[in-house]
Amino acid sequence: MKVLAFGAHPDDLEIGMGGTIARYTTRGHEVLMVVATVPNRREERVQEAEEAASILGADLVVMDVVPDELVFSRQLVRRFDQIYSGFGPDVVYTHSNNDSHQDHAAVTNAVIATTRKNDCSVYMYEQTIPGGIAPNPFRGQYYVDVSDTIMLKLDAIMAHRTQLDTYGPWWLEGVKGRAMYYGFKINVKYAEIFEVIKDIALW
Ligand SMILES: [Zn+2]
Fold this sequence. Notes:
The protein is 45% helix and 21% strand. It is of the alpha/beta class. It has a single domain (2-198), classed as Rossmann fold (3-Layer(aba) Sandwich). The chain has a 7-stranded mixed sheet, sandwiched between helices. The longest helix has 17 residues, at 169-185. The relative contact order is 0.19. The protein binds zinc ion. Residues 8-9, 12, 101, 104, 128 line the site of zinc ion.
């Protein structure tokens, strides 16, 4: 299976679905992580993102969109279209369309436009934390048991040293706590959840 995962910034994918990415790759599936923009310290943060992707066993594309130019536009959809057609995914992941960060929202609008006529499943991961408020509740319906890969997820987040310095160890505790909370709901240790935009049966 080929999995294409979009995040606005380096570290978004690790926080939102790092356990799921590692679960795919450790089971032999191919994952391509796409980062749309790097808001600051580009060189350092690209290196961190590369390290994190390699921990998760995924490939990585860091786009060169200028932060102030990351908007839902024909241009962004065209660029996502190119990545989509070049890779040919079975499954696509993106931010929640309720995410209150303007960059996350721009990416998701463009991903939904890119995938609207294609034969791939599309899922959204939860509001990135720490990430402020979301006006509407996240309605996660699709659960992934990440008990076996939670440590890879946490290691991948820790590869983003600039962010760990900024947000501190509670940040990581928060991410882990959220996975525990969702784990309880499906009777496993750790889980990640997703909202479904379209889910295509593969059987
Ligand atoms: Zn972000």
